[in-house]
Amino acid sequence: MELPPHMSRDFRDGPAAPLWQEALRYWREQLAGAPPMLTLPADRPRSANVRDRSDSETVVLPPALGSALRSLGHGEGATLFMALLSAYAVLLGRYSGQTDVVLGSPFAGNMLPVRVSLSGSPSFKALLRRVRDRVVETQAHQELPFEQLIEELRPRGPHQQHPVFQILFELDSARPEEPKLSDSQVPPTSSRPERGRFDLSLRVEEGEDHALRCHCSYAADLFEVGTIRHLLQQYRMLLEQITAAPEQPIETHSLVHPEATTVLPDPTAPLVAASRPLVFQAVTARWIQTPNAPAVVQDDRSWTYEQLMTAVRNVARALEAGGVGRGHFVVVTGEPSFGLIASMLGILLAGAVMVPLDPILPEARRKVMFEQVAPRGCILVDQPALTGVSALATLKVDPLSGRVLAPEVVSPIGNAEMDPPGQNDPAYVFFTSGTTGVPKGVLGVHHALAHFLAWEAETLGVGAEDRVALFSSISFDVILRDTFLPLTTGATLVLPPANLGPDRSLDWLAKADITILHVTPSRARLWAETGEQGITAPSLRWVCFSGEALTDAVVRRWRSLTSPRCRLVNLYGPTEATMVKCFHLLPENDGLVPGVQPIGRPMWETQILVLGERDRLCGIGEVGEVAVRTPHLTLGYLNAQHEQAERFGPNPFRSDPVDRIYRTGDLGRYGADGTLRWLGRRDDQLKINGFRLEPDEVTATLARHPAVRACAVIGYQHDSRTALAAFVVRESEVESRELRAYLGERLLAVMVPGSFTFVPHLPLTNTGKIDRQALLALRQGDDETVEALPSGPVEEALARIWCEVLGLEHLGRHEDVFTRGAQSLVIMRVIARIRARFGIALTPRAIFEASTVAELADALGHALADRVAALETADEPA
Fold it and tell me: What predicted TM-score, i.e. pTM, was given to this entire model?
């Protein structure tokens, strides 16, 4: 095909130079700040050869709709092309979640971008006028060839994508536009663009009868045919609504076409909650049925259901004697042990509210939590007294027997009968990260916990022969799942040995005959990377992944570690919605979705809604906020009224005050088969190693340091993992080591940024917000100086370990490893290698406190010296 004359010469020189300069100035202004790509949620991940396969689907729109669109356009001084393009931009905005959409269209043989702003909640008529003006401007500056435009602008974006725009729109009309427009206003389409170069290409043909035939070509490596068929049906539905009500705001129009109602949830349908035995009732029933069956196992010790219930009742009676009763908060802390399990159940039996806290929590953070719950009781399982705790009753419980060792009772109330909780009574409190710098307490309810446990027990077929591993931290709500799932079903809860490293975890799973495992994808990946080659876990029946996005790479790796009978499942659910609310049974490897796996379908008595603006139910493929609708939500937040009102609320589709939803802040979309996909967050919330955190909480805490004038903490991807980076404007001299220690005293270790970069000011965007991309471009290892080399065999060995794990060529003896990319999962790998090299089992806190090679060598030297001294003492004659 011969190019039009203006595309075969360079405008930059000669008489046409002023015209070229004016066109270039226009396009620079029009594309300034434009998104580098339209983030359509594809069915498959993008790769370098994404356009090797293309396919197409067609839908025919009736003549009456074509005539209505033409009339609508003429009423606004616009063409049919402009009306169709405007509606297509609305549809693409719904799919991408973007309000700034750039499409391509052929103009007089030259392919040019059309940028459409969907912001400000315009009506369709208002949007059509915007698009009309933009198309007219584009035609007035169409002389600049697209190739030269790209050469001058050098737009950023993945190299395998079409630059500036990845979506094409064109109209073939058999009739001239009415009213008559100048040639510059009518986009000729005689020169066909190469549609296979684009992710999506929509070509609309208008016949003599006004019928519109919409042909959608698509990259078959990105999209399933079902997705495209739904998209075309939604385009038709959107056009019908637009012509019927063009004055309505564009976000009010629905994309839920009739065919989609068979796979999407109906939010108007009632959800009825069945009554189920509560946790302590179910455990009691198992005790009555099989008192001598093993309930808890750790190392070479085993405790029966009879022994467990004896300890549970003793704890409950001691709490009652100390003035603790129904609805009172009781803190419990300790390492995983039989005594800890008995204490947790004893709190529930007493009708109190369990508040589990990890012993390693920084004192400042623990104090904030205590202030929120004002505990009436405190149970210490092999732990020293907690400072700052004012509780009516403090119990000390033996970890091995579960016996109450030292009840310090202030106001005993005798031996009155215990008042067990009811279905709607609060059961527990767990804390999540808060944007204000204060952790939020989430108050769980008994019937919701019972609902989840009953669902998982039936879904997994849990029975007396099962052995369930406990790997969860006591501070996270998933410990309820790992602890109570086996004990409410007559199975055995198996506690791993203390200081079990990631390099030995797979081996332990096999030797302990574990049949059911819950694990975060990060931990699963770490075990697979650090475990001995050839180790498998053949006894596993179920591996349940949860806590963060799960990739097909992790699934494939674990298929090789388990037997063919083992089933793998992806679970989804925020703490506020009571554990898991959605699950996806993972198919065999050849059926896996490349990349991040779906989160699937909802459990019993639950709906997962995807909501758009103004609580509009999203259609297939449309991006929106994931909301959980179920009668089994938690009771909400303690002392966080604003967030309570923002996240928890009535179902907008029914006028029933009891019918509530929880807005997760997660983005998602439904696939053509009704499977839910997780797409990230609406806000800045992150998940690191399965722990949910708000960077704003870290920022707020860091900002309180007297030497910090201003700061920002941002999440970023490092070696396919999420990490935190801090950027600090100093008020006075301070080093990153001091700031890291300051945060470590107040936050969990996973919340402490791995790098600190000192900047003269925080850069801002045009809208006045912090420019995150500009900051990340400045990220560096702080205090970068020429470092002294490691000294001595211990330091040299430690430096080699760090370099191997972090992929470094060298590491100075005084360099802070957190400035070189260390983070919590990396630390676990280093701990495993140190154990293998030196025979010393360190804790993550030890690494955190000794973050240089020199400091770690010193700490390791003390540990080795203590071991030698102990051996020498043991060898001395009596």
Answer: 0.79
3-state secondary structure 218-246: EECCCCCHHHHHHHHHHHHHHHHHHHHCC
**3-class state of residue 442 by DSSP:** strand
Nearest to 373 by CA among 362, 388, 395: 388
One-letter amino acid of 838: F
DSSP 632: T
Please name the amino acid found at residue 819.
T
Count of all residues that appear for the chain in the document = 878
Q: What DSSP string describes 503-569?
A: HHHHHHHHHTT--EEEE-HHHHHHHHHHSPTT---TT-SEEEE-SS--BHHHHHHHHTTS-TT-EEE
Contact 320, 412 (CB under 8 A): no
Which pair of tokens denotes residue 534? Answer: 């050839």
Return the pLDDT at 8: 42
Compute the C-alpha angle 530/527/474, nearest 5°. 130
Mean pLDDT of 726-741: 87
Joined together, the tokens standing for residue 409 give 């009772």
Helix, strand, coil percent values for the chain (each to nearest 5): 35, 20, 40
Report d(CA 58, CA 228) in Å as an integer.
Answer: 9
Supply the DSSP symbol for 258: G
What would the pLDDT profile of 98-109 be if each residue is shown by its tens digit? 899 999 998 877
pLDDT at 772: 78
CB crowding 580-591: b at 16 or more within 10 Å, else e: bbbbbebeeeee
Residue 863 has pLDDT above 90, yes or no: no
> Residue 123: pLDDT above 90?
yes
Beta-bridged to residue 626, according to DSSP, are 610
> Which DSSP helix (H) or strand (E) runs through 648?
strand 648-650
Comparing CA positions, the residue from 590, 592, 517 lying closest to residue 550 is 592
Q: Is 81 helix (H, G, I), strand (E, B) or coil?
A: helix
* Six token digits for residue 324: 């603790």
Provide the total of helices (H) and of strands (E) in the chain, helices listed first: 23, 33
Residue pair 67/210 in contact by the 8 Å Cβ criterion: yes
- Write the DSSP string, 304-336: EHHHHHHHHHHHHHHHHHTT--TT-EEEEEESS
CA distance linking residue 445 with residue 577, whole number of Å: 10
Q: Angle, nearest 10°, between helix axes 63-75 and 80-96?
A: 100
Strand 660-670 relative to strand 648-650, pairing: antiparallel
Q: Residue 74 is encoded by which pair of tokens?
A: 């003429």
Query: What residues have CB less than 8 Å from 80, skipping those under 6 apart?
Result: 66, 69, 70, 73, 171, 173, 177, 206
In angstroms, the CA 45 to CA 407 distance is: 59
**Helices 279-289 and 338-349 sit at what angle, rounded to 10 degrees?**
120
- The dihedral region occupied by 472, where left means phi > 0, alpha psi between -120 and 50, and beta the remainder, is beta
Look up residue 499 and give its two tokens.
């200081």
Give the pair of three-digit tokens for residue 70. Answer: 């033409």
Locate 226 and state its tokens.
């079902």
Buried/exposed code over 280-304 (b: 16+ C-beta within 10 A; e: otherwise)? bbbbbebbeeeeeebbbbbeeeebb
